Give the backbone structure.
Amino acid sequence: MLSADFLRLDEEVDMVNNSMADWFHLDIMDGVFVPNLSFGLPVVKAISSMAVKPLDVHLMIVQPERYITAFRDAGADILSVHYEASTHLHRTLQAIRQAGMKAGIVLNPHSPVHLLNDIVGEADMVLLMSVNPGFGGQQFIPHILNKIKELKELALRINPALLIEVDGGVNRDNAAQLCHAGADVLVAGNAVFKSSEPAEEIRLLKTILD
Ligand code: ZN
């Protein structure tokens, strides 16, 4: 939703509601963990009040454990925190699940997959960043394909139900490659919202996946 037009947020939410998209992906930035600021709880609540699909909330903030219940109350269904921002990640993931949400771990492009060896069993999803977090509209980093394959192998050994999500620079040109490598969930921002026919773009992306 970071790429949506916030002056027409109701229409943008409606478009996603009526499209083939499965989830809403919300990027929360604090200006500390990442250089940029995005939006906070009131906007999450506003989207939640209209959304008829799950809210997948990606926290790009320091000390994310401070806001677990606040995001649950605002309507989050899936809450993902950065490995790089969580000193006590095991406890944070447990707290997210205890609050009634699915728990996700996010890895920045520079963080190796093997960091997750001892924690992947505690997560419902791992989100691999395919750009450096903080801005929409960036170029996709191709090394992500190796990381998806490595994570898929780890998941098959330890947590076969784990969902693998990819975020950043996803479009029609790389969606098939990402899925073949093992991605289950693709986040598309600019590819959808900067298109003249966003719902059709979502349909095309979904068709690539099927
Ligand atoms: Zn995101």
Observations:
- Residues 52 and 78 are 14 Å apart (CA to CA).
- Helices lie at 9-17, 41-50, 68-74, 89-98, 144-158, 175-181, 190-193, 198-209.
